[in-house]
UniProtKB/TrEMBL annotation:
It comes from the Bacteria. This is Radical SAM/CxCxxxxC motif protein YfkAB. Keywords: 4Fe-4S, Iron, Iron-sulfur, Metal-binding, S-adenosyl-L-methionine. One of its GO terms (molecular function) is 4 iron, 4 sulfur cluster binding. Gene3D superfamilies: Aldolase class I. The keyword Metal-binding applies. Residues 26-255 form the Radical SAM core domain.
Amino acid sequence: MELIKEKQQISPAYDPWDPIRSLRAYGRHVLTSVEMTVAQMCNMRCEHCAVGHTLMMSEPPKLPLSLMLKRLDEVEHLETLSITGGEPMFHLKTVTDYIVPILKYASDRGIRTQINSNLTFDIGRYELVAPYLDVMHISFNYTCMEDFHAVGFTHTSHEVKSGAASRLYERMIDNTKRLNEAGMYISAESMINYRTHSKLSEIHQLIVEMGCQRHEVHPMYPSSFAENLPVLPLSDLRQSIHRLLDTRHRDVWMLFGTLPFFACNTDEEDQKLLQRLRSEPMVTLRNDPDGRNRLNVNLFSGDVFVTDFADIPAFGSIYESRLDDIFNSWLQDHPLSRTVDCHCPAAACCGPNLLVADMYYKGADFKTRTALLPALAK
């Protein structure tokens, strides 16, 4: 393993999770990002959770850390690692025996790292990972404790009293403020859905007040717990984004991802929104990494998925294969990969992911379409 100490600072000009970077560098999609599911338990059951059906009340043993590190060593172009769950910080032993060693490994290789957490546990757990972590990613879709209570415990097997929810909400906010003040880079993600689309400006204000350096915004798509929730029309999605852009703090990085609007769309309103997004300062559009430059590894089974949403069956195992080989097999052999493998250099666009294509563009062949905004691509 070659040790690389220097790291470029993550910024709107440098987002190492965006697959457009490796596509430009290598002329094709290559595996640069690995996501690991290290937890199948969570202290919350959010109504929109994209992995909700995989959550458990107890966990089986995880595979040996040495095997995971061996497979990471074999990835030729590895640039980023993401740690997800469930709630990765649920068990202190997972933090000490898996997460911290993985982060140390990544730090030694100069690899950027992210943890997806709800930040509701004792701050000491987060202080353990702070020296080695690049991005702490949290979900924040609330304007008040009542929102948190209503959204965060929809699928619990027992009633969660408002007092208990309030304590978690206050700890989450306090942890976020304290960790930000201590120098941790915290990126708060909000989903545009039937609950939040008219409240994004208020949510953004709270995120800024907590000190977060970045606000991510993604539409909600029907996966797992969210599969039966109301779906917003595209017109409501557009309006909510415009309102947010009107009221945002212009010195805070806003990252929009998995938007169902593309430079090859002929709809005039889509084009107006894209033009605005591409011309606003401190605003970026991230192409979806899943299946483009990222795989997910389940650290309990060793199964490899194209996304942690688990809607697509596993197509490999780290017990049997190298991750680069599994990724190349996905690109070359899997029929679903060929349905979303378009790339438009003029628009810096990798096209829709599987969820977006299925939800809004059934039957559309993006490889036959042409971008209408080439001059504004960035």
